[in-house]
Amino acid sequence: MRTLIAGVGYSNLRDLSLGPILTIQLAAMDWPVNIEVDDLSFGPIAVVQRFQTQAEPYQRVILFSAVSRGHAPGTVTTYLWEHKLPPPEEIQARIGEAVTGVVGLDNLLIIGEHFGIWPEAVIVIEVEPTDEGEDGWGAGFSPAVAKAVDDVLATVRRVALGRDDPVGRLTEVA
Amino acid sequence: MCFKNLPIEFDENGKAYLKAGVANPYDYKSTSLADNEDKIRELLARNGHIKDVDFDPVTRVAGALAFHSVVDLKERKVLSTNSMATLFRGYEVILKGRDPRDAAFISSRACGVCGGVHSATAAMAMEMAFPVRPPPLGIVIRNMLLSMEFLYDHPLHLFLLAGPDYSEAIIKQTNPEIWERAQRTPAPGANAHNYGTIGAIMTDLNPLTGGLYLEALHMTRVAREAYVVIGAKYPHPETIIPGGMMTTVSLTVMNEYFVRLQKFFDYSRKVVAIWDDIVDFFYDVDSRYRQVGARPANMIDVGIWDDPEAYDATYANANAWGERRWATPGAIVNGEVVTTKLQNLNIGIEEFVEHSYYEGWDGHRFKTDPSGAPLSPHHMWNKETKPRPTSQSWKERYTWATSPRWDRMAMEAECTARLWNTAAGGVFPHKRLIEPTGKSLRMTVPRAAMPESEIEWHIPADWNAFERNRGRAYCIPYTAMVAMDNWILAMDMLKKGQTQVHTPFEPPKSGVQIGVGYWGAGRGYLTHHAIIEDGALANYQILTPSTWNASPKDPWGTPGPYEEAVLNTPILETFSGPEDYKGIDILRTIRSFDPCMPCTTHIHVDGSPLCVTREVNTCACGVD
Prior knowledge:
The complex is a heterodimer of chains A (174) and B (624). With 174 residues, chain A is an alpha/beta fold. Helices cover 34% and strands 17% of the residues of chain A. In chain B, the strands form nine sheets. In chain B, strands 3-5-6 form a three-stranded antiparallel beta sheet, with helices on both faces. A three-stranded antiparallel beta sheet of chain B has the order 9-10-11. A three-stranded antiparallel beta sheet of chain B has the order 14-15-16.
């Protein structure tokens, strides 16, 4: 099964940079030939266009990112993308923000879905960031997210290497 | 004589000086906004048909813009307007104290679309300050790179951001009678774009599904691919540095660039025909559309695309090398080009903060520019950025944008000003593919799938929202022909073995040096003014097109371009009451400027707890 593992996020935003930073760590690990690791933080439209011109599509995509959802800081949540789209006005707004420079997990998922690039199996691993206000900028992670890093890496590996049911039991891990 | 309001005159050699006998030449008295605002509140309280209409945020623009208006829905006119940049952009603060060589890389982050033009403008400011003159191929390659940035940006504006306002999906809701007529109106430009009716164009302008929307997304990829061949990455290129470029230019690079550039030849023909048809159709339907977004044709542009033999990066020769650009610099007042000299543009600019979330400043460090011409204390070389968020008040302060003025007039930054200055400026030297006539600009677009053809943009009789979009469409062939001309020059240089793209330099380690970079974003004017002191940036001021356009009222109460254009906009939408009023005429006006309100900025010093965050509540409800 051709699989892509990919982080999403901006650089130098502490917890919110979890995607690009862990991509580097994951890329340095050994993987079977059918598993690729990449950073998809280069803009949703450019990602769509890359997927659209691939000779061989991915059969599974594993995305990870730090996203604020109101959980306890450091919470790792794993779920299957349900392939549901918001109303057209919101999709249009997401495309508008994407082409003018906004990068984020949600706009990548929505825009990718709208343009039909995702395979059936898209597994999302999110981490709840801590940083708010004055601590939110620069290098490094907050203690809560730093503590969750091993968990995220292990979850990505477990899901990617099939040591976990990649579909049915992906609920809250930690 | 180009100044009417500032007390600046010129001697017989063209040297500017302050008029004698004016005691405090740059003094002014502020006008209070309170009386007018009180009157508006009174009208609102007394009349049910007068409504506050807020767009917060204005969608389909880059970044965070809110717009407040008071509209008389019975008389169908706009009574009051306030443009609000709702986020703080603090690059001026970030860059202070930095190594000047960082400016090109840091300032690039001011925009997620046009990072390259900030890099170039910063590099040019440093080239003037250091000083260092790039080699000819470095200049030409920079022109080619940044042309591609515009060829990314123009389709994006025309079909993803502004275009949907003219689509079937929107027009059916806001003016169903126009949609009815569009379906039976033949499209005059069918030969170029293949749409039989105006209605068919409008259907393909539909967001998400329309063919023109999807094609524009595709064309952004074509431009991006050509861009990264030279810039290494988009939107923040790695190869623009003071002294030129740091990339290897080979025949392969030239070929990869050209095959993508060529795709814009037929696309140019198609896009101008589409926007000609859309604009002319609306004028035919109702001549009052000429008033939508109308304001006097007062514009400023510093030009772009340097002549490799003329650009020497000096302030002393800026008038000469500026007039050799592929886009002529200039100030346009009531439709007339009043100067094409970069130094005149520079000394006429002031920035005011009376209605913005900034403190003023007292200093007047540079009383003259390097040529000895007078400079205002409000000029960017004298300006200091002191953010001071306060509560919003239409009578006092309501935006993070400032009020730049040239000769104390509210000037518009517009890519159409490039066409206008070049057409009417009378100095354009590069006539291989582009020919100014004084009233128009003729472009010879080479053969691709379609045969070679001439495209001609005419200086419009009216200046409004529709002409902004039409001008933007013509900027695609214009930009493509500039890129083509520069590509030919680069090939000639390579053939002659002129492969140097960078001039080595040593940044100054002591003393005071100043510089200014003159360039443009896709939508128009861009300058960076820098002061270097003892090897570090002591002051850095970025003036973007949207700062001009989104400006609040100035100290004399004159509205900024968005505000003025919306004030002049008739309400032509079809609606039965406030509940189904959508504000399309106002939105068309605002979006015609292609607002770009770059990201908020948070300032962090690594390894220290220092962090500056500025927040402001954008909700206009209850503001007085």
